[in-house]
Amino acid sequence: MDEKEAVTIENEHLAKVYQKFPVVVTKGKGALVWDINGKEYVDCMGGYGVCIVGHCHPKVVQAIKQQSDILITCHGSLYNDARSELVKELVNISPSGLDSCFLCNSGAESVEAAFKCARKYTGKHEILAMTGSFHGKTMAALSATWNPKYRKPFEPLLPDFEFARFGDIEEVKSKATEKTAAIIVEPIQGESGIYLPPDGFLKGLREICDEKGILLIFDEIQSGLARTGKLWASQHWDVTPDIMCIAKGMAGGMPMGAMIARREITDPLKPGDHTSTFGGNPLACAAACATIDIILGEDLAKRAEVLGQRFKRKLQDLKEKYKIVKEVRGLGLMIGMELRFDIYNILMGAISEGVILTYSGKNIVRFLPPLVTDETHLDRVVQVLDGLLQKEEKNRMSQ
């Protein structure tokens, strides 16, 4: 199949729900991908944060091959050794006290499970989310997602979901009522543009939840698993949730998600309350075990911290150089660069120069490269951005 045929088939027969980039990717290794014509790209999209250990990490590939020879599927009604091994590893690396898991296939599914657990455990029904939040596009997850462009086409959404301003602890206090079952928050907001919470905000949420008998849910789907320079982003602020949602890079590229909670929170669930046909399948579990071993064994949290600091400094240098760069923010290798214009030409220009970026809205470049990337790759990204920003600023000055 050639490039034209691949593009034509997807355009004609796939639902048009993705903002497509003009690249047909056929191969990946580490922090690089290649298109159908053999052109190499530095991948700073990373499957929207999925490629934490890089494309086709040898240990993940080997784990998948070995497991596929033994057993591919095993429903949760039967015990399985690969699943048991993963659960043991998840409990070991999770924040203290989070020792009960529900395995699923995506971040949105983990959020759905968290909401059902919160409602059944507390006997309350309201969920308080944050402005700027993104938790997924299934109906309950979408009901807790802030952006109107995602919400409006599918309204009415589920009732009893409220929003408070991200970072405004006083507004959270005023909106948390005796009917609130849970407060959900991303420790670092990803989809809305890589926004960090103000100092004291997450601790303030923890105090409100403890005082009012509310569960605190951390959505670590994008920020977790070493992405920000610590295993969990919440560790930057030394706050432990009652429930944590993870997914994306959890299984080295295989579809997988998990909700992890205090055991007492999942204990009220009865057989049949919440299940998943594919959740915890042996193939994904084997890949996830390999991924966790890589993250810990290669100390990818430290790597993300060191590379992220260096990369962020170089992006800050571009901010000082070009007035069209408004702000650079983030932690580890979860970074956003906010520009003062629509970034479409930047994204397309980067592709032509062999760099794949992604975005948050129309004016924020989002960087989610694999944590196995290196200085050479990131320097190439900065060099490409430098040239594109220089061209953009000159064009604007000449107008």
How would you describe what is shown here?
It contains 14 helices and 15 strands. The model has no long low-confidence stretch (mean pLDDT 98). The longest helix has 24 residues, at 375-398. With 399 residues, it is of the alpha/beta class. It is globular. The chain has two domains: 3-53 and 299-398, Aspartate Aminotransferase, domain 1 (Alpha-Beta Complex); 58-297, Aspartate Aminotransferase, domain 2 (3-Layer(aba) Sandwich), CATH 3.40.640.10. The chain has helices at 3-13, 46-49, 58-70, 81-93, 107-122, 139-143, 148-151, 169-175, 201-212, 263-266, 282-297, 300-321, 344-352, 375-398; strands spanning 25-29, 32-35, 40-43, 100-104, 126-130, 161-164, 180-185, 215-219, 243-246, 257-261, 325-331, 334-339, 355-356, 358-360, 364-367.
Number of domains: 2
Mean pLDDT: 98
**How many strands, which pairing sense, and closed or not: the largest β-sheet?**
7 strands, mixed
For the record, give the distance between the C-alpha atoms at the N and C termini, rounded to a whole number: 44 Å
Keywords:
4-stranded mixed β-sheet, alpha/beta, 2 domains, Aspartate Aminotransferase, domain 2, 399 residues, Aspartate Aminotransferase, domain 1, 14 helices
